[in-house]
């Protein structure tokens, strides 16, 4: 017996990926285009349409029953629009309406990319079996999403759980979002590298200025590099503990490029969490690395569409 499929889109500043996904989270067909992020909005949309065109042209498309979109944000699911910071041509862009037109009027579920990653981790990854979870993407920015009461909780606009813009340093550096001392301003990859450079770290002969290079230096014992990761871990711990205190999550799953630093990040994160998650009902909170990898956006977008379609978790 052939099962229904969902179409998934994972839209970021670098690539636009699409897939047809079954109800076990298996990707049966893929398509991808570079994101023309510096072009006008319609040019970006043509890249989305090219990805969807590959999917709709395939024989498997006849089994597609819904579309899930995980997009760089901000997104607004209540209006079906997106305004990704890293795609300036899209401001209040009517993405849901345009995708619906290309896909023959299929139902479309839009969530932020952090929420999509959360859906993937709850369905297939480290948050599986947890009814209350926070999942974080720590990369160029810091995003996240929530599972509450066993269900994905995207919130009215699809942005709930966006931990990157919790302020954890009231007099801290201004954040591009307009606030001060946000988690993202301290813990994102570019800010880990910026702080290390400001404090005296210097890259190797290859000139690599990335957070991955800082992590490699930390592994080699560079004290400035270690300190920059410890500061990032402290900010993440404060944000995670605040979220746990508010909604009683029992696990925080951390993914994204910065999480690839491994114990350089996770060891100080666990230590700092003990300093912030002090109340009795959050002391059992655990932290785990994400498991769904580079397909998290696609699998999570599919999970979000399945959740909406059935009003249940796809587990």
From TrEMBL:
Signal peptide start and end residues: none
InterPro entries reported in the protein's UniProt record: ATPase_NBD, ROK, ROK_cs
Coiled-coil segments on the chain, per record: none
Superkingdom per UniProt: Bacteria
PANTHER family: N-ACETYLMANNOSAMINE KINASE, ROK (REPRESSOR, ORF, KINASE) FAMILY
Similarity-based family: Belongs to the ROK (NagC/XylR) family.
Protein name, UniProt field: ROK family protein
The species this protein was found in: Streptomyces antnestii
């Amino acid at each position: 017996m052939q099962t229904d499929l969902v179409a998934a889109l994972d839209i970021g500043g670098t690539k636009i990926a699409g897939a047809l996904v079954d109800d076990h989270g298996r990707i049966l067909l893929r398509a991808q285009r570079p994101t023309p992020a510096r072009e006008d909005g319609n040019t970006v949309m043509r890249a989305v349409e090219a990805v969807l065109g590959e999917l709709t042209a395939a024989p498997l498309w006849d089994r597609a029953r819904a579309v899930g979109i995980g997009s760089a944000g901000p997104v607004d699911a209540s209006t079906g629009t997106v305004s990704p910071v890293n795609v300036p041509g899209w401001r209040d862009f009517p993405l849901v309406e345009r995708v619906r037109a290309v896909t023959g009027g299929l139902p479309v579920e839009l969530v932020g990319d952090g929420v999509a990653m959360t859906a993937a981790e709850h369905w297939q990854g480290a948050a599986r079996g947890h009814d209350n979870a926070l999942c974080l993407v720590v990369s160029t920015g810091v995003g996240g999403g929530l599972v509450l009461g066993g269900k994905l909780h995207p919130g009215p606009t699809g942005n709930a759980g966006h931990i990157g813009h919790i302020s954890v340093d009231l007099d801290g550096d201004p954040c591009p979002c307009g606030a001060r001392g946000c988690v993202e301003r301290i813990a994102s990859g570019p800010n880990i590298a910026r702080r290390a450079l400001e404090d005296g770290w210097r890259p190797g002969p290859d000139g690599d200025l990335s957070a991955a290079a800082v992590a490699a230096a930390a592994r080699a014992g560079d004290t400035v590099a270690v300190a920059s990761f410890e500061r990032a871990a402290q900010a993440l711990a404060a944000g995670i503990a605040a979220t746990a205190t508010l909604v009683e999550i029992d696990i925080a799953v951390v993914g994204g490029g910065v999480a690839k630093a491994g114990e350089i990040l996770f060891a100080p994160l666990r230590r700092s969490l003990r300093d912030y998650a002090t109340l009795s009902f959050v002391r059992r909170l655990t932290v785990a690395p994400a498991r769904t990898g580079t397909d998290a956006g696609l699998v999570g977008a599919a999970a979000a569409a399945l959740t909406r379609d059935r009003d249940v978790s796809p587990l």
